[in-house]
Amino acid sequence: MNNTIFHHKQTAHCESGVISNLLGHHGLKISEPMAFGIGAGLFFAHLPFIKVNGVPGTTYRIWPGAISQRVCKRLGVKMEAAKFSTPAKGMAALDDVIEAGIPVGLLSSVYYLPYFPASYRFHFNAHNLVVYGKKEGQYLVSDPVMDTVTEIDPDSLVQARFAKGFPAPKGKMYYPVHVPANASFRQPIKEGIQQTCHYMLKVPLPMFGVSGIRFLANRVKSYPEKVGDRKATLYLGNVIRMQEEIGTGGAGFRFLYAAFLQEAAEMLQKDELGKLAGELTKTGDLWRNFAFAAGRVCKSRAADTVSYKDLSEMLLQCAASEDAFFRKLAQVKW
């Protein structure tokens, strides 16, 4: 395997960033937006029956792990992955692999990563990072959302890898064992786009895709009456946080997916994809406007001008824009 120096590259999102950095280390150059798009990372779901820290779950991306799995399958990469029953087994396995000079992707909880500022440390158990070595008892970390490499002590790393809660990371680690020297991106791009369109337009349940955005819009409108002002603020705040903090890159990954379409347009010389990238950027602006207005409502700065009904209307506008966009994207001729 490749024992060259690991080059850290900051990215917008952890999972697509880690897969981009790991594959790049082994000679397969793939940008983060391209990994996100081939992995069909863009999604939407609002799941009021699944509570995360007592708040209904909202996600703007596909479930954790899916992006990496799809990228590897579509590009012919073989990834070794394992979970562990005890921290001792998990740390011993990690040490064995990094001693062989192989960078390792890890699943972790943000809460136990001491290099994050306190305000960013909360119980989110699906954060991906790379450990690429060990020095004087400290693990060398390339966390793609950080601007530079860092270190972590063994105790904190154990806590992060074996955090309790949902989903429990169980010490998951993964690393490439076969990376093709050359890979064609055309078919993987096509498959990634078609899968994203399917999930956004055709899942026959109201909580998912474009229908899910409308579903959330209808619930937001009645938050104050249904759950009271305090919970309404908490629920709304989580929708924004998942969009602008967990959905790093902005607007719930819409800007990141637009960057993928722009890169795909240039790589495949399909101007149509470039035009659609511009349309999705405008949709991203609608999401940003929603987040700004909702944030002011949460801080009670716009109680007299912006209502929950207004926010609901903004979400419906996002849904209409995404509906039109994905229908056009689904009709691209290959």
Structural class: alpha+beta
Widest β-sheet, arrangement of strands: 3-8-4-5-6-7
Task: Label the overall shape.
Answer: globular
Low-confidence stretches: none
The tally of domains stands at 2
Helix content: 40-55%
Pfam families: BtrH_N (PF14399), DUF4872 (PF16169)
InterPro entries: BtrH_N, DUF4872
Protein name: BtrH N-terminal domain-containing protein
Describe the fold and architecture.
- The protein is an alpha+beta fold and 334 residues long.
- It has two domains: 78-178, Cathepsin B, Chain A, CATH 3.90.70.10; 186-330, no CATH class.
- It is built from eleven helices and eight strands.
- It has helices at residues 14-25, 32-38, 66-75, 87-99, 154-161, 186-201, 209-221, 223-246, 254-268, 271-298, 308-330, and strands at 42-52, 55-61, 78-82, 104-108, 127-135, 138-142, 150-152, 173-178.
- The strands form two sheets. It has a six-stranded antiparallel sheet, sandwiched between helices.
- Strand 6 and strand 7 (150-152) form a beta hairpin.
- This is BtrH N-terminal domain-containing protein.
- Residues 13-144 form the Butirosin biosynthesis protein H N-terminal domain.
- Residues 156-329 form the DUF4872 domain.
How are the secondary structure elements laid out?
Blueprint: H1 14-25, H2 32-38, E1 42-52, E2 55-61, H3 66-75, E3 78-82, H4 87-99, E4 104-108, E5 127-135, E6 138-142, E7 150-152, H5 154-161, E8 173-178, H6 186-201, H7 209-221, H8 223-246, H9 254-268, H10 271-298, H11 308-330
Antiparallel strand pairs: 1-2, 3-8, 4-5, 4-8, 5-6, 6-7
Helix pairs in contact: 1-2, 2-9, 3-6, 6-11, 7-11, 8-10, 9-10, 10-11
Domain DUF4872: 156-329
Domain Butirosin biosynthesis protein H N-terminal: 13-144
Protein name: BtrH N-terminal domain-containing protein
